[in-house]
Amino acid sequence: MKTFARSTLALGISLALVSAANAADFADMDPVTLRLAHVVNEQDGFHIAATKFEELVEERTDGKVDIEIYPNASLGDERTLLEGMQIGTVDMGVITNGPVANFVEEMAVFELPFLFPSPEAAYEVLDGPIGQELLDKLSEVNLKGMAYAERGFRNLTNSERAVNSPEDLDGLRIRVMENPVYTDTFRELGANAIPMAWTEALTAMQQGTIDGQENPVNVIHSFNLDE
């Protein structure tokens, strides 16, 4: 339903200085280990990005900053991770935008369907003053927004029937992110929108308590949702 959104946020303490730093700049620094968590598996783009981030940080700090990655919601769902970042039990996370909007309401604007006509239009907004202004607002709730990342077009899957028009959604029990914009959008389209954490959605699909979900195709592929 939503044509495009770069709806992933990397959140946590800011290591932006690392990109421009030399290893020598960290020579006098005591080693530190940071925990970076996400809720998807090792085949997902989130994990691939986190692994590359770990590699670059450790290389450019001469090993003084060690990144430990916790995939598969091993430290909790996305809301739990955000709350952990606020109190310092989690250092960083790769988090979808939907749960972030529960902490900074203005972030929910990026959940509006058909908001951007093209990827290029999204890049212009998110990499510009508007995107930075919203990232900066996270500091008001004791979070640090580092960057936006592309998650891709969102796609609907279900076990009942093909969806070619809004009418085909009528009555389908669809898991959506825990975000009121998502919930309201799918209910207006006729679906029985059920907000829940992604970890719960997998079990609910297996048990048949929901009919389907919506996500970028890389999530659909990495979690073998066709099964």
Give a description of the structure.
There is one protein chain. This protein is α/β, with parallel strands linked by helices and 227 residues long. It has a domain at 154-222: Periplasmic binding protein-like II (D-Maltodextrin-Binding Protein, domain 2, 3-Layer(aba) Sandwich), CATH 3.40.190. The protein has helices spanning 45-60, 78-87, 97-100, 119-126, 129-137, 180-188, 198-207, 217-222; strands at residues 8-12, 32-37, 65-70, 92-96, 145-149, 154-158, 173-176, 192-195, 212-216. The strands form two sheets. It has a five-stranded mixed β-sheet, with helices on both faces. A four-stranded mixed β-sheet has the order 6-9-7-8. Helix 1 (45-60) links the parallel strand 2 and strand 3. The protein starts with 7 loop residues before the first strand and ends in a 5-residue tail after the last helix. The relative contact order is 0.18.
Structural class, please?
Answer: alpha/beta
Q: What do we call the CATH homologous superfamily of the domain at 154-222?
A: Periplasmic binding protein-like II
Task: Note poorly predicted spans.
Answer: 1-8, 10-20
Shape: globular
Just give the CATH class of the domain at 154-222.
Alpha Beta
The proportion of residues forming helix, as a percent range, comes to 25-40%
Estimate the mean pLDDT confidence.
87
Main sheet makeup: 5 strands, mixed
Number of strands: 9
* Radius of gyration over C-alpha positions, nearest whole angstrom: 18 Å
